[in-house]
Amino acid sequence: MTRSAGILLPVSSLPSPYGVGVFGKEARAFLDKAAAMKFHKWQVLPFTMVDSHNSPYASVSAFAGNYLFIDPRGLAEEGLLTEQEVKEAEYHGSPYTADYAFAKESRLSLLRLAFSRLTGKKAQEVKNFAKSQPWLPPFALFMAIQKEQDGKPWWEWPEELAKYELALEHRRDYEAETVFWEFVQYEFFRQWAGIKAYAEEKEIEVIGDMPIYVSRDSSDVWANRELFLLDPDTYEPEKVAGVPPDYFSEDGQLWGNPLYDWEKMAKDGFAWWMSRLKAAMDFYHIVRIDHFRALASFWAVPVTAKTAKEGSWMKGPGMAFFEAVKKAFPEPPKIIAEDLGVFGEDVVELLERSGLPGMRVVQFGFEPGADSSHLPHNYPHNCVAYVGTHDNNTLLGWLWEASPEERAFALRYCGFSGDDWSQGGYNSPSCRAIIEAVWRSAADTAIISIQDMCGFGSDTRMNVPGSDANHWRFRIGKNNLEELDADYFAEINALFSRG
């Protein structure tokens, strides 16, 4: 990748009148602002539908887009909603917090109303779209059956529905609902295509995020049971996904996702994964594979375990996976390896052999006396350097919560000599010192979250790994974007050859 800088801003965190961010004029306004500041990357979180904790990392589909991002105004422009109906769907709560409950109810109601008004021509477009997406008919059928089954997970459905191959014989019974979900995905893809094209006009590449695992209660597992380590009769896993104790959690993280049967996947050249990667590359310009280390070896935890401490390592597909990628993609896809967390020789070797850029996070670097790989002077060209990710505290929050020794080392390392390190806001001198240390580094790409551009504190943190508390809710206000010091970011992007 060429030397550049980017902004981490999830679509859900964009301003909008509808409870969460959408693919609307606010997204285009953000891209205008980013381009004016000489940024050339926009990093988002997974586009997948969120789970009961509003996390996009355990979705009902690895392929389907989050219908909450569909802009009601776009449906009105197609003649499927009236201006009054769109106006009545506006949210009147805080513009700084995502209200998923409101957005889910409101958006589904509007989408069903729009669906009821499909014309013959538009209905044919939806039908053609569904045929072009092999994952979509199984997903739509899954959603239709789950609605009829009152939301129960697929392994609790009657046998003739729990087995995908048998459920296909009942597809006609669910036709209206399956076509509705095909319409929803058609609208999602159509609206996103417009935003992506606008980003390209602004010479901005979108960095997407691909969770390594999928949810057990998903159309992916339901329609491809043989690709996962499940008991063929009970559909129960013996072991599930997680990570051992690390920086974020002393007990490790017990995710609970089903594990892949990598040996079986290898027999057809990892076809399911290649289709997933192709779908991601159609969405984004660059894709970040979350928890990349699981492709080298993965942490398998007994399903009966209370914490992830009880797990053990199992071998992943390794370079065989990336050899398959080379065969499947004539043009090599742009991939970032999220190689944070638990290290090991196998993941270091896989990263080196694959040639993919890894990640560095400056907040991890300030252990006094340690020459950490996360210190900017140690960054290689082939990496993506972060001021902080969606899993980190904000930069100001980190400064406040770091030990006195860590904070003193960080400020000294970054050349900050003042006594007002606690000052936040758009012009925070301590935050700017650390940002500029990352920008000076050799890393080809530097990424900053929108919270750190504003100098916000820990109350705006997006997520705390290993916790199911009320996360994923931060939103940026329109006023916050307007108050950003655009001249400052344009200056440092130009000064450090990232513009």
Give an overview in words:
The chain has about 500 residues and is an alpha/beta fold. It has helices spanning about 25-35, 70-75, 85-90, 100-115, 120-130, 135-150, 160, 165, 175-200, 220-225, 260-265, 270-285, 320-330, 345-355, 395-400, 405-415, 430-440, 450-455, 480-485, 485-495; strands at about 5-10, 40-45, 205-210, 240-245, 255-260, 285-290, 295-300, 310-315, 335, 360, 385, 445-450. α1 links the parallel β1 and β2 (about 40-45). The longest helix has 27 residues, at about 175-200. The mean pLDDT is about 95.
Instruction: List unreliable stretches of 5+ residues.
Output: none
Q: What is the overall silhouette?
A: globular
Average pLDDT confidence is: 96
Measured on Cα atoms, how large is the radius of gyration?
23 Å
In spatial order, strands of the major sheet run: 9-6-3-2-1-12-11-10
Terminal CA distance: 13 Å
Number of helices: 20
β-sheet strand percentage: 5-15%
* Topology, number of strands: 12
Q: For the report, how would you describe the main beta sheet?
A: 8 strands, parallel
Range of helix content: 25-40%
Name the structural class.
Answer: alpha/beta
